[in-house]
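Fig. S4 source data, part A: sequence.
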Amino acid sequence: MPTITSERTSVHGMWTSRLAFILAATGSAVGLGNIWKFPYEAGENGGGAFVFIYLACVLLIGIPIMMAEVMLGRRGRRNPVDTMLTLALEEKQTRHWAWVGRMGIVAGFLILSYYSVIAGWILAYIFRMATGVFDGLEADAVKSVFLSLTADPERLIAWHTIFMVITVAIVARGVEHGLERAVRYLMPALFVILISLLIYAASTPGFVQAVQFMFVPDFSKLNGESVLSAMGMAFFSLSLGMGAIMMYGSYLPRDASIARTTFSVAMADTLVALVAGLAIFPIVFSNALQPDGGPGLVFNTLPLAFEQMPAGTLIGTLFFVLLAFAAITSAISLLEPPVAWLVENKNLDRAQAARICGAVTWVLGLGTVFSFNIWADYQWTLKFDLGKVQYLLFEDKTFFDIVDFLTFNVMLPLGGLLIALFAAHLMERESCEDELALSNPHFNIWYFVLRNISPFAVGIIFLHAIGFFRWIGIMH
C-alpha cells in the first residue's frame, strides 16, 4: 500500500480555512468565461437546452475531474510538476507523468499572456463607460470605439502592463497575505456587483423573456455541435487541466473535505454563469438586440444597450468592474503554479519568482497585442498529409488564434484527460480513499464516473476540438 502522506506540507503556507479555499478556487474558476463567454455561447446555441446540457456536464465531467485534481494537489503538496512526479513515483509509475504538470504550467502561461490583454480591454472600458464615451453613439460608432482600441498597440500594451503589474503584486505577497487576502475582498465584491446587476435586470421588460430563454429548453435547437460546446464549456469554466486547481489544492488543510469544497466551488461557479446570463440577456432583450452576438456581446452589444438605459453609465461601469474582478482572481491562479515551481526548484523568493513569471507572460502577451493590429495579416495554417487525405489542424490563424487553439483545444482537455486516467486507473484505490475520506457509496459513485464517464467525455471534447470527427467525415 502506498505511503500515507498526512504529514506532507506545502512550503508556501496553507489556506487559513475551508472558506478561503472555496473563495480562491471559485475565483480561479469564475473568470471571463463565466461572465463573457457563457452568455454568448448560450445565446448562440439555443439558450435553455444548452444550459441543461451544460449543467449535466458539470456533474459528470467537471466535478469528478476537479475532485481528482484537488486530491492530487493536496496529496503532493507541491507545484504541479513535482506533485505529479512525487505521486507517480509513490504509486510506482513512470516519472514521465511530471509532463502533465509541465503542460499545465505552460498552458497557464500561454492563457494568462492573452487573458491579460483582454483584461486590459476591460480596464479600458471601465474608464470609457464611466466618462460617458458611449453616450449618444449608434451601433457602428460603438463598434468603432472597440476597433480603435484594438488597432492601437501602444494603448493595448499600456493596459496589458497595468493588469500584469496588479497580478504580479498580489501573487508576490504569498498565499495568506496575497492570494487569500485578494479573494476575500474581490470575490464578495464580485458577488455584490453581480447581484446588483441581476436586481436591476429583473426590473427591465426583457427579464421574463430572458428567464424563458435560459431555462425553458427547446431541444429542437440542439445539434451535435451545441452539445459539444456545452461539454467543453462545463470543462473549461472550472479551470481544469492548467495546474491552478491542483496548486490551490496543495494549500488545502488535511481536515477539509475535498468533496464538499469541490461541490461548493462548482456550484458557485455555475451560479455565477447563470446569474451573469440573467443579468445580461434582459438588457439585450429590453433593447431589441440579439442574444447571439458572439464575442462582441460584451464590447459592442452591451455598451450600446447600457447607453440606452436609465443610469446606463453607472450600470455599465459596474459591469466592467465586475469583469475586471473576475479577470484578476483568475489571473492570480494562473500565475501561481509557475511561481511555486521557481520557488521550490530555483531557490528564489516569491517576489523574484513572481516578477520573472510576470515578465515572461508580459512578453508573450505582446504577440496577442500585435495580432489585432501590426501582425493581423500574418496568419498560419497547419496541416498534415495522411495518404490521399489532408488532416487540417488549423487554418489562417493569427498568433493569438493559435495560442488560444493550442491551450483550450489541445492542452487543457488533454491535461484533464490525463489527470482522470492517473487518479482513477494508475493510483491505488486505497490512496484515493485515504485522501478523499468519503463514505463507500459516495466514493464508489465518484470512482466509477471518473474511471468510465469523465475520460470518455473529455476524450470526445478533445477529438472534436482538434477536428478529428470532421476529418473522419471527409475520409468517408
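Fig. S4 source data, part B ends here. The chain is about 75% helix and 5% strand.
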